[in-house]
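haha ok so turns out i had the wrong file open the whole time. this is the CORRECT one, sorry everyone. sequence first:
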Amino acid sequence: MKKNPPVDPLEFLVASGARFEGLSSNQEVYEFAARQLRLASGARIVTLASFDDTDSTMTCQALDAEPEILARLAAYPVGSPIGMRVPLNDPEALENLASGKVVYVPSLHDIMKGSWSHDVCGKVEAHLELGDILARGFTWNGRLLGDCVILMPRRGRLTSSLLVDALLRQTAIALQRRRAEAALRESEAGYRALAENTADVLIRIDPGMHYRYVNPAISLFSNLTPEAMLGKKIGESGVLPRKAATLVRRNAKEVFRTGRPRKTQFELPGPKGTFTLDFTLYPEKGHDGTTLFVLAAARDVSHILRTEAQLKDKERELTERNALLEQKNLALRELMQQVSAEKQRLSENVADNVRTTLLPMLDTLRLRCGPESGPQLELLRSSLLDLAAPAGRLPEQAGQRLSPRETTICQMIRHGLTSKEIGRSMGLSHRTVETYRNRIRRKLGLLGGRGNLASFLGHGQ
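then structure:
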């Protein structure tokens, strides 16, 4: 087998770096890196694998060898190692690869991790006249990206470990750059999709006051289109109305001058009427802090202003209604005071009639009746006195729940009559009176030892 010609390390790295710059896919990066690593190391075979830290596996992405070696390898019915996934569960091996150390692998079978049998691996090593097997990881900011396996010829030695290190570094940079570019493209696509579909108007303005980007939302609020505005200057005929253009230009210049956001508001005539837009202008700054562009974001606040106006009208209407209600409440209070005064006057008249007319008549009647009528007459006198003094009546809620007979029994209890005396006065049995008393207790919520009926009714007051 022919040996690889010696290479000048510096020229080799410069040429490799330039080639890495022009590669358009990760697969091209892996294939080119494998070829360069074989040339730089003097290896018989070089493989490159990517590392997936989610399941700790290496996936072979590229294999490079001379055609003669590839032909020999194809003689074994084991398939191509490209795409083969190999688990990497040994913490020490992971640590060595992540640290960039060169790891000497005992045999090909240790690399294949059981994908090829011991017998096949031994035959391949003998047939290809393999010697040392070296493995080295390549990283980016401490994160393992993959590994390189170098299969040296028998009695062969690694040509330049420094050149191998530098090539793996170039490989890591090329892969990371492509990942960053892909992430940037994805991010830009996401932001563009957001900008193109948002209902807010987005306008990008350069220092010369030209429109550099206008999203389609402008057509929702005006007869303008992004195409009609791009490249034109603020205030140019046929773009924004003069008043709106003046406000936008003045605030954009201020943002370029100060580097701070600005806000303004203006009306924009459109196909569906006139809209009020809130404009906020933000500085887009470069790495040195200089404002490169101004991004203006406009939001339709017409509905908010209409709602605020409606709320003010409702508030004014509510204030007027409250004033009218207050007047009615005042009139009602005056009427209630008059009713209360009239009620007090009638109560005083009733009390006066009871004292001056009914009580003297009752005293005369007591003299004419026998002793057996004493309790009834005393109850009548007490009731008349209750009538003359409203504060001594039954509680209003109690009176609403009791029947006329129950109310009469309550009056007798208030005046200290026992169940026997009440029964004798009303022509009822003692048991019937007790039944009435229990019914009264239930209606007044006094069952279960919650209170004494006579105390509740104010006996002795």
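The first strand starts at residue 45 and ends at 52.
again sry for the mixup
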